[in-house]
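Example (one chain per record):
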Amino acid sequence: MCLGIPGKIIELKGVKATIDVAGTRKVVNMQLLPDAKTGEFVIVHAGFAIEKVDEAKAKEALDLIDGIIG
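Predicted structure:
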């Protein structure tokens, strides 16, 4: 099973981005989403942003994860 975690793009530098995941910042590879912009939400798996999502979906996923590992 794979688990993707949503995060908000804080800063973009080339193919790398700093994202915020529930208050923790992480650097991820953005090569799979070259059109992503600062302020957007992405799903991250294995260090790669793999999908763009809207803010509501990101919050829903974070709430679900928090409920599981709470």
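Caption: The CA atoms of residues 35 and 52 lie 10 Å apart.
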